[in-house]
Amino acid sequence: MSTDLNNLSLKELKELQSKVAKAIASYEERQKKDAIAQLEEKAREMGFSLAELTGTQVGTKRKRSVSAPKYANPADPTETWTGRGRKPNWMIEALKAGKSPDDLLI
Fold it and tell me: Which pTM was predicted?
């Protein structure tokens, strides 16, 4: 397959880029599944399960717990922050204005 990229419009290039990204992700996912299947087979040959050997359940992702909001914007109480991650702009501005974090607690 040979495509002259110089003759494509910006829209066509972006569509092609999207298709390539999806194809790469799909390829990598297939490779991972194949690797896991091979490892599971080898573990079975040795009398174990892959989960036993790794101490994890294969194919499951660890779920993050959702944190409850800890701070609220006094000007707009619908804007909240858990205290984790980057400080929101309203929190930075309130601290610059002389408020303490305790003043912004919910």
Answer: 0.43
